């Protein structure tokens, strides 16, 4: 395991006092290694877990050629351009059991969607395209082509093909795909344990009476929500006062139980903060000032405790900075810890509905409200007040507008990048 100094030495232009967001990404991708243990879980427990090995299809899906429509199956070679076709119905094929009879020319079988195509038949005419006259059906001229409305064996997956790759995060579609292969269990990476707590003497826990100079702990609740959505195992260690002994006990407890520890508060330059001192004492730590807004101060490293090591993310105390640093850096790092191959969220482009002031030389995140214009394209406006203590505007937002490090002012109508909250938080 490389030390933080060794990782820093590998990076070009690493300056902990003015670190570009890209350099943070690069640093974290070198620091964080996936958990190594795997486990077998039933499908209902596999949602949001990460597949630990390629999943090879043990059978083909669908396992046989079958009808895509309710209608009549026949040999498509009988269709002739410009001519209607009359066929005699000699049986019915239902889904779930193959029809065993034999067919001659001029004959067809009534068939249900999903029923196995009877031997030698390759085409299905949907019920609504036919005219039924006693035992016969009439197919109008040029209504379909040979092979229409038949689903081929293995069209979805062929036996022996990889159905999903290791590192895939299992969503609802993947759950269905795995089930379609007849598999009741999958091998996934162990869920990382993430401990989190708030720090600060001014922090009130819910249930405590309001007090002059104090604020209620909101960071633990936003962190709870963000971590829960990610599907890690949560260890809530409450709000810890800014005293060396309490902080040391909390950090030791967290590090003894968790794969990663997330705190908020106490990472800036304030005098009363013991947080940074305790972090330094218990681990290999870097204290960064990131060229970013919000989320300038952030601590990163590893805590060593009882022969084990836990990642530590010390997030700034301001509530919006907590969410932004989490989404920008901690979430991708935790996904990496979870074994996921795709860790960065999808960014989309929208037109800015307003001008925005932006200095080149730092990455900025503004809370935004994205919507569709009348012509269907994506547009975005800022939620207004962007103070990093203003959580209300985060709750109003449905995206973050990400203004890149090198970018300058934004004019009305300029394209900007968005991180949509849907699927992210
Ligand atoms: N001289 C400087 N001062 C500050 C700098 C700086 O670079 N130089 N950076 C500013 C930035 S940016 C941020 S962000 C904050 C981060 O400071 P800390 O991480 O030390 O956080 P605190 O001082 O403990 O708290 C900041 C702010 O957030 C409130 N807070 C903290 N925890 C919670 C919580 N759990 N729930 C709700 N609100 C919380 C706290 O009351 C403070 O108002 O430093 C700037 N200062
Ligand atoms: O992290 Mo601070 O302003 O960037 O809130």
Give the SSE map.
Layout: H1 4-10, H2 21-31, E1 38-42, E2 55-56, E3 66-67, E4 71-74, E5 85-93, E6 107-111, E7 123-126, E8 131-133, E9 136-139, E10 150-151, E11 162-164, H3 172-180, E12 185-189, E13 193-199, E14 203-204, E15 215-216, H4 219-230, E16 233-240, H5 244-257, E17 260-264, H6 275-282, E18 283-289, E19 292-293, E20 297-305, E21 308-315, H7 319-337, E22 348-352, E23 363-372, E24 378-382, H8 391-396, E25 399-403, E26 415-420
Helix pairs in contact: 2-7, 4-7, 5-6
Molybdate ion (MOO) binds next to loops.
Jot down its keywords:
425 residues, alpha/beta, Molybdenum Cofactor Biosythetic Enzyme, Chain A, Molybdopterin biosynthesis moea protein, domain 2, Molybdopterin biosynthesis moeA protein, domain 3, 4 domains, six-stranded mixed sheet, 8 helices, 26 strands, 30% strand, binds ligand LQZAQKY5, binds molybdate ion
Architecture overview:
With about 425 residues, this protein is of the alpha/beta class. It has four domains: about 5-35 and about 190-335, MoaB/Mog-like domain (Molybdenum Cofactor Biosythetic Enzyme, Chain A); about 40-60 and about 155-190, Molybdopterin biosynthesis moea protein, domain 2; about 65-150, Beta Complex (Molybdopterin biosynthesis moeA protein, domain 3); about 350-420, Beta Barrel (Beta-clip). Helix content is about 20%, strand content about 30%. The chain contains eight helices and 26 strands. The protein has helices at about 5-10, 20-30, 170-180, 220-230, 245-255, 275-280, 320-335, 390-395; strands at about 40, 55, 65, 70-75, 85-95, 105-110, 125, 130-135, 135-140, 150, 160-165, 185-190, 195-200, 205, 215, 235-240, 260-265, 285-290, 290-295, 295-305, 310-315, 350, 365-370, 380, 400-405, 415-420. The strands form seven sheets. The protein has a six-stranded mixed beta sheet with strand order 7-4-6-5-9-8, with no helix packed on it. Strands 16-13-17-21-20-18 form a six-stranded mixed beta sheet, sandwiched between helices. Helix 2 (about 20-30) packs parallel to helix 7 (about 320-335), helix 4 packs parallel to helix 7 and helix 5 crosses helix 6. The two termini are about 30 Å apart. The model has no long low-confidence stretch (mean pLDDT about 95). The protein binds ligand LQZAQKY5 and molybdate ion. Ligand LQZAQKY5 binds near residues 200 and 202. Keywords: Magnesium, Metal-binding, Molybdenum, Molybdenum cofactor biosynthesis, Transferase. Pathway: Cofactor biosynthesis; molybdopterin biosynthesis. One of its GO terms (biological process) is Mo-molybdopterin cofactor biosynthetic process. Its cofactor is Mg(2+). This is Molybdopterin molybdenumtransferase.
């Amino acid at each position: 395991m490389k030390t933080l100094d060794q990782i820093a030495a590998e990076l070009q232009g690493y300056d902990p006092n003015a670190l570009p967001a890209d350099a943070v990404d690069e640093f974290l991708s070198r620091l964080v290694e996936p958990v190594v243990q795997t486990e077998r879980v039933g499908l209902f427990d596999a949602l949001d877990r990460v597949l630990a090995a390629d999943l090879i299809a043990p059978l083909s899906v669908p396992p046989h050629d079958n009808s895509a429509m309710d209608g009549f199956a026949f040999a498509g070679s009988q269709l002739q351009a410009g001519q209607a076709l009359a066929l005699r119905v000699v049986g019915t094929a239902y889904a779930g059991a193959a029809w065993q009879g034999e067919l001659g020319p001029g004959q067809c079988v009534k068939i249900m969607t999903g029923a196995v195509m009877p031997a030698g038949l390759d085409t299905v005419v949907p019920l609504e395209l036919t005219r039924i006259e006693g035992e016969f059906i009439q197919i109008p001229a040029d209504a379909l082509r040979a092979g229409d409305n038949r689903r081929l064996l293995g069209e979805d997956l062929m036996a022996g093909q990889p159905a999903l790759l290791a590192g895939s995060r299992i969503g609802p579609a993947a759950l269905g795909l795995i089930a379609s292969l007849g598999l009741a269990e999958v091998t996934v990476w162990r869920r990382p344990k993430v401990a989190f707590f708030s720090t600060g003497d001014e922090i009130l826990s819910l249930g405590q009476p309001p007090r002059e100079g104090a604020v209620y702990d909101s960071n633990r609740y936003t962190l709870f929500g963000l971590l829960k959505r990610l599907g890690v195992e949560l260890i809530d260690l409450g709000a810890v006062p800014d005293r060396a002994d309490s902080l040391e006990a909390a950090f030791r407890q967290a590090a003894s139980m968790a794969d990663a520890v997330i705190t908020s508060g106490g990472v800036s330059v304030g005098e009363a903060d013991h947080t940074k001192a305790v972090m330094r004492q218990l681990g290999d730590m870097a204290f960064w000032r990131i060229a970013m807004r919000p989320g300038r101060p952030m601590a990163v490293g590893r805590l060593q405790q009882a022969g084990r090591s836990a990642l530590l993310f010390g997030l700034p105390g301001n509530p919006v900075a907590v969410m932004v640093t989490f989404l920008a850096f901690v979430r991708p790092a935790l996904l990496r810890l979870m074994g996921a191959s795709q860790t960065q969220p999808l960014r989309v482009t929208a037109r800015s509905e307003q001008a925005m002031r932006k200095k080149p030389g730092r990455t900025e995140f503004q809370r935004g409200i994205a919507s569709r214009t009348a012509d269907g394209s994506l547009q975005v406006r800022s939620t207004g007040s962007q103070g990093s203590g203003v959580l209300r505007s985060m709750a109003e937002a449905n995206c973050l507008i990400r203004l890149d490090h090198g970018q300058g002012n934004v004019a009305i109508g300029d394209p900007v990048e968005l991180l949509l909250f849907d699927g992210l938080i």
